[in-house]
Design brief:
The protein is an alpha+beta fold and about 260 residues long. The protein has 2 domains: about 160 residues, Aminopeptidase (3-Layer(aba) Sandwich), CATH 3.40.630.30; about 90 residues, ADP-ribosylation fold, CATH 3.20.170.20. Helices cover about 25% and strands about 30% of the residues. The chain contains 8 helices and 15 strands. The chain has a 7-stranded mixed beta sheet with strand order 1-2-3-4-5-7-6. Strands 8-11-15 form a 3-stranded antiparallel beta sheet. The longest helix is centred in the first third of the chain and has 15 residues. The radius of gyration is 22 Å and the shape is elongated.
Length: about 260
């Protein structure tokens, strides 16, 4: 079972189209044509010149799989054109996994910290594959504004590769006083749910409105993800992806404590 994964060259173009179109049209019955996919007609321009990449899995002269990354800015990328020939699917070959691993490794060298993708609801095996690899389903309205929508896509996924932006935790000032001199911070949800609830900067106002109405003397803990000693996972709640810390928050990860005034 020898095959290679390498970046796209212009000589691959027709073989890529011959691989992808039958899978879309015949295997999954997607009403899409080559005319609906201008990226396949100008791969170098569409992907490489915009700071992305495109890879092919090849067995001899045959293209047996593809995957692409479109750079949409702000440290975010979109997976496009992930297809594997039916003869080369499954764990025995590992083509899909190797393609994805290649893409993720490349993203980590390019400061792309978050990746998204769109697919269709009939591709159940693909859903299982993405979920096994740390992707979480999200609602369409929670996609980045720069996400390039395909008219056939109706299911969307997100994976955080390397959390770099600060996350935040709101707590009563009286409760925080118990931990000022401690080496780590914890709350009851760690026992009942297995993690500590946090928010991104954009989620702070909503968290206040939902859980802290009327409360005074609140503090906002600024948490630096790179300093955490326990896993940080982004998980869906109410259609949005919230940061959850799966363990006590070690004191050195709390880089700032700010008094909050309820709006």
């Amino acid at each position: 079972m020898t095959y290679a994964v390498r970046p796209y060259t212009e000589e691959d173009k027709e073989k890529i189209i011959e691989l992808i179109l039958p899978i879309q049209q015949q295997e999954f019955g997607v009403p899409i044509t080559i005319g609906d996919q201008p990226d396949l007609q100008a791969i170098s321009t569409f992907y490489f010149q915009k700071g992305g990449n495109f890879w092919v899995a090849v067995n001899g002269d045959d293209v047996i799989g593809t995957i692409a990354l479109l750079n949409i800015g702000n440290g975010q990328g979109v997976i496009r054109k992930m297809f594997v020939h039916s003869n080369y699917r499954g764990a025995a070959w590992g083509v899909a996994q190797r393609l994805l691993d290649t893409l993720v490794a490349w993203c980590e060298t390019k400061q792309i910290d978050e990746i998204f993708l769109g697919t269709i609801d009939t591709m159940k095996a693909a859903h299982r594959f993405y979920e096994k690899n740390g992707f979480h389903a999200i609602e369409k309205e929670n996609l980045p504004s720069t996400f390039p929508l395909m008219k056939v896509d109706n299911r969307f996924y997100q994976r955080v590769l390397r959390p770099t932006q600060r996350i935040f935790h709101i707590t009563p000032g009286s409760y925080w006083k118990n931990y000022v001199t401690q080496t780590s911070y914890s709350v009851s949800s760690l026992e009942t749910e297995g993690f500590i609830h946090c928010s991104t900067h954009d989620q702070i106002a909503g968290t206040l409105q939902r859980f802290f109405v009327g409360q005074q003397n609140l503090v906002l803990l600024h948490v630096e993800p790179s300093r955490l000693q326990h896993p940080l996972k982004y998980e869906e709640a109410d259609g949005k992806m919230f940061p959850h810390v799966y363990g006590p928050i070690n004191r050195e990860a709390i880089v700032k404590v700010e008094a909050l005034r309820f709006p």
